[in-house]
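FAQ: What does the model actually see?

It sees only this:
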Amino acid sequence: MPAAIAREDGHLFSCTVQDFSDGGLGIKINGQAQILEGQKVNLLLKRGHRNTSSRPRWRA
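And it is asked to produce this:
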């Protein structure tokens, strides 16, 4: 599923959600991104005309 990661400073990174479960999710970042473990990010999802934002905890 196509998605984007938004850092608190406003930078956006294109990504793909590869695995989603109750225990977490796997994300493949398209290109280079500078995200540190523990950094607060928003995960932006879009499916059809519906947009969703969540705040996961980032772990490398």
